[in-house]
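Worked Example 4.2. Consider the chain below.
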Amino acid sequence: MSEIDRFRLVLIVARAHSISAAASITGLSQPTITRAVKATEQLVGYPLFRRTSDGCVPTGDAPAAFALMESILADYDALADLDAAHLTPLRFAFREGALPTALDSTVARWNREKLAPAKLVMCDDPIAMLQAGNVEFAVAAYDGPFPDGLDHRPIRIIRDDRIDLVHVAPPTPAVAEFLRSYY
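Applying the procedure from the previous section yields the following structure tokens:
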């Protein structure tokens, strides 16, 4: 369990004034909550609660520690929200069974190495999804020219079977970066 998770649990105990109530709220066991409190008390260097028959009562120094934990959690959550706030994923529409292994492994590598995630979207008509602006790429069988405004590159050719990676022309910077990493 991370320190962040422990801070969240300690603050739940502080609000609920009870380890058993915190366990009920979180769905965790009382021993798990107790270990989180003890580990956090060890980190701060002093007890945060007095255990009484009425529950957990914060010690005199505990409110200052709680305030710092609240601040740390707010900053941590704001940092975690940055990902959703400005990173638009690259979305790849494909028909079931039509995703070449090479592209699947490139998407996995992209997700390990890049900040903007790549997501696979299974659908009935990848080209329609691309034209509607719902995805950045369509994985589609090549059986003649694609509609105007779309560019494409082959990703698998086996005998007469050809699968292309289709995108809007000209490509956005993120699309162009993916194309450079794939080809």
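The CA atoms of residues 4 and 72 lie 8 Å apart. DSSP finds seven helices and seven strands in the chain. Compare this with Example 4.1 before moving on.
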